[in-house]
Amino acid sequence: MILPDAFDFLASPFLVPVLCTGAVFWMHSKKQKPDETSQLRQMLWGIQFEPFRQQQQLMIGLLSCLGLLLLVAAAAVRLGPLAGALALAVASLGLRPLWRLVLGKLRRLRSRNLLCSKGGSADSDLEPCEAKLPVWIVTGFLGSGKTTLVNHILRQGHRLLVIQNETGDTSLDAELVIEAAGEENVMLINGCACCQIRRDLRDLLCRVRDKGMGDVEGIVIECCGLADPRAVVQTFLLDEEMKRSLQIQEVIAVIDAAHVARHLLATTSTPAARLVEVQIAFASVLLLNKIDQCDDFDALRPAIRAINSVQILPCTYCEVDFATLFAGAGKGPCTKPWRQDGGWSPFRALTEDIQLRSICVSDHEDQQPSPEGPLPDRPQIRCISVRVWGSLELDAFNRWVLRTLQDMDVMRAKGVLAISGYDAKFAFQAVHVAFDGTVALASKWGKDERRFSEVVIIGFEVRADLIEHGLKRCRA
Ligand SMILES: Nc1nc2c(ncn2[C@@H]2O[C@H](COP(=O)(O)OP(=O)(O)OP(=O)(O)O)[C@@H](O)[C@H]2O)c(=O)[nH]1
């Protein structure tokens, strides 16, 4: 008899946990978005309704899945395979979102646990890491490989929000990272003066937090190559709101093994050399990148160690093992500088006097150096950003850029180009005279989009008028 069996089944003990977990889950989903009623309830009762913690959410999700599966099993055993299949079909409607929730929570817990397993909560300086979104700060001098690293991290399949701080107007870095992260997960802050970054970054993070992070597992901030990382670190420590919801996981400095010697081993101290030192000194992880372009990278180690004694990870194209970079540091002696007595801690960013605000970068040759920039008698780094409309001829551009890199003693050049005869946008990159060639990007020019080429060139002797003139002569 099907009917009594069904009654029997309804009264079965399986139904109780299923209904309970379903009810709790439903309550939880309501609780995520506090409505006017719950706010009123809080006011009337004076009780703070705490949101569920990650582990509780996970438990609820797992219990719900288990309950639904038991329900299906009970239906199959008691009512036959047909009823089991029917119950499975109904349950699968509920299981899909549940399963997604459980997987999301597990991933988040894993990334949080990486932080905890590295001793985050054991550190008296740092607050418990639970419920805080981890933040990775990527720093390093111009062209050292920061965007390459961010792309490498994103390819590991983690859902991260990427915030880039660009020098100049070109959106090349964003174009490159968007390919790996998706457009909605990449945000830009322009400008390089650290006080400006701090305000903009804070505003941006507040907007992101208010909008809701979705299933984002963490935030990666790629600093501009001329920025002082201490300014970015301060953003997270000066603001109570930020401190409650975000936690610095690592400050990763990418060092360009091919070019760093000219800063670290130079006999005179230049603003660029001081900045490279600060970027290295303020890191918890050091990546010695581009070892394929350096004959003897071991010779650089003593100069780097003299500034910061944390572990140095040599690599090419920033291809370090993700686990080593984000979790494996726990192997062997403690490598976190803020775990060592008297060592560096993120909180030192608050007490250290930031003398080197950022290297003064001007877009115009006649611009006066800012009070925070280098002394007037020092050579000034210029960042020139030039846009020309129309398409360029590829060979003419390649010839021009190679000549310009040598003639103007360029430190860094990059840009997005419109090349005649191609729908795809093109990119070019150069660090000093190392020109990486001109490559097609995944993104294409729109049918009605007005084509242009935009280049950013950074160096001591770069001149906007010559760059504009040269680029115009490359037009098809
Ligand atoms: N040969 C070689 N080239 C590399 C390596 N890593 C990065 N590059 C190249 O170096 C150039 C600069 O790399 P990016 O990742 O854009 O450097 P960045 O630090 O983000 O540059 P900025 O944001 O302008 O400061 C690109 O052309 C990369 O392809 C490496 O290990 N070896």
From TrEMBL:
<dbReference type="InterPro" id="IPR051316">
    <property type="entry name" value="Zinc-reg_GTPase_activator"/>
</dbReference>
<feature type="transmembrane region" description="Helical">
    <location>
        <begin position="58"/>
        <end position="77"/>
    </location>
</feature>
<comment type="similarity">
    <text>Belongs to the SIMIBI class G3E GTPase family. ZNG1 subfamily.</text>
</comment>
<keyword id="KW-0547">Nucleotide-binding</keyword>
<keyword id="KW-0812">Transmembrane</keyword>
<protein>
    <submittedName>
        <fullName>CBWD5 protein</fullName>
    </submittedName>
</protein>
<feature type="domain" description="CobW/HypB/UreG nucleotide-binding">
    <location>
        <begin position="134"/>
        <end position="301"/>
    </location>
</feature>
<dbReference type="InterPro" id="IPR003495">
    <property type="entry name" value="CobW/HypB/UreG_nucleotide-bd"/>
</dbReference>
<feature type="domain" description="CobW C-terminal">
    <location>
        <begin position="382"/>
        <end position="475"/>
    </location>
</feature>
<dbReference type="GO" id="GO:0005737">
    <property type="term" value="C:cytoplasm"/>
</dbReference>
<dbReference type="Pfam" id="PF07683">
    <property type="entry name" value="CobW_C"/>
</dbReference>
<keyword id="KW-0472">Membrane</keyword>
<keyword id="KW-0378">Hydrolase</keyword>
<dbReference type="InterPro" id="IPR036627">
    <property type="entry name" value="CobW-likC_sf"/>
</dbReference>
<keyword id="KW-1133">Transmembrane helix</keyword>
<keyword id="KW-0143">Chaperone</keyword>
<dbReference type="GO" id="GO:0000166">
    <property type="term" value="F:nucleotide binding"/>
</dbReference>
<feature type="transmembrane region" description="Helical">
    <location>
        <begin position="6"/>
        <end position="26"/>
    </location>
</feature>
<dbReference type="GO" id="GO:0016787">
    <property type="term" value="F:hydrolase activity"/>
</dbReference>
<dbReference type="InterPro" id="IPR011629">
    <property type="entry name" value="CobW-like_C"/>
</dbReference>
<dbReference type="InterPro" id="IPR027417">
    <property type="entry name" value="P-loop_NTPase"/>
</dbReference>
<dbReference type="Pfam" id="PF02492">
    <property type="entry name" value="cobW"/>
</dbReference>
